[in-house]
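Reviewer 2 asked us to include a model.

Predict the structure of this chain.
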Amino acid sequence: MEEQKKQDDSKRNAPLGSGKRRLVILGGGESGVGAAILGKKEGYAVFVSDNGKIKNKYIEVLEHDGISWEDNGHSENRILDADLVVKSPGIPDRVPLVLKLVERGIPVISEIEFAARYTNALLVGITGSNGKTTTTMLAHHILKEGGLNVGMAGNIGDSFALMVAENDYSHYVLELSSFQLDGIIDFKPNIAIITNITPDHLDRYGYKFDNYIASKFRIAKNQTKDDFLIYDADDEVIVDWLQKHPVNSKLIPFSLNRAFREGAYLKDNKIQITLDNNTMEMETETLALEGKHNIKNTMAAAAAARLVQIRKQTIRECVQHFQGAPHRLEKVLKIHHVQYVNDSKATNVNSTYYALESVKTPTVWIVGGVDKGNDYRPLMPLVREKVKAIICLGVDNNKIVDAFQNVVDIVVETYSMEEAVKVAYKVAERGDTVLLSPACASFDLFKNYEDRGDQFKNAIKNL
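Predicted model (structure tokens):
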């Protein structure tokens, strides 16, 4: 142990290097360690600094690659000596250390921006408040089945930087959060998709919705007339923003309500995708993913696939057999003719709206967690129509109770997943659905939404 500590101390105190450009990575998680590996490969003297504890699995990688690191605090003098800083998306722009870097004229960028500088691959970038994970996974699945050498990264799986460092993909499908887009300068996807925009993460954006919208639209900020922006033409927020802030890219709209000469739309229960006067059709009843929102996700992914010349038949086969994202409307088990559905990834009201909309049977709804300033009013019509019981799951359930106690007869407060599932089991009747769709973040009782979903699945299996 003593010998290991000496080695660790020597790594932490190693000089950044002479004659090399100095790269500092703020944050020692997935994206930070990926950027560190790419930085070393590209000849930088790399230093990783994390204000919290770096996980052992990442320390092992840094040690193996001979990369200098520190955790549980920042050595400000070393960081302010950087030529370039790559910042974890979880660190807000307004923290004092980041403001000092900007004051000194030291570029602070995202791992997405950094990685994009070292690949000539064709990039499909996908953002949105909801649906981006499913759309990313589906687009990647179609491109891969279509024979392309394609990687999937960003806000899903391995970091983009790690993939660029270790692979030679000709195409990438990237899930991009607003936090990742905040740190771009020159990054541009050849094909951008905005699935939808609804209020989320407003605490990060000064509680101004326009700031959040502008962040999402950064995905198209560097696009040219040779690039494409695929977007939801039913989303008034997106349409209004585009009218006031035109982009250079070619617009490819998709809609459930309107037809287009160029774009994707619904006609007679068939998806029609028309690009360059070439149309393909898909029956909605053959789609593996259920719900109106998933028709839109399918439109977006399929349109992107057509833009990179994937065959129509390949696309049709892929959307018929695709398995959706874990923790997103995931059917877990049917017990005594009651279907249990895990939608733990629904961390905002809009996402839960889609979930409730897609369920066709009387619903026992498990909801709650860390409220991000939620307005539950948009859910009222669906709750009145479908929800027979509400099971609150959170440290503080007052806002949910106040919102729905006069709408639903049964409202129960619980403080553990095991308790919530047991109550649901007692309340649910033959033909019902028990839906975990929290509309809230998970950090009051769980590590993350995956942990919340896993505990839900385990509790069901233990009934």
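The longest helix spans residues 292-307. The CA atoms of residues 181 and 218 lie 6 Å apart. We have added this to the supplementary material.
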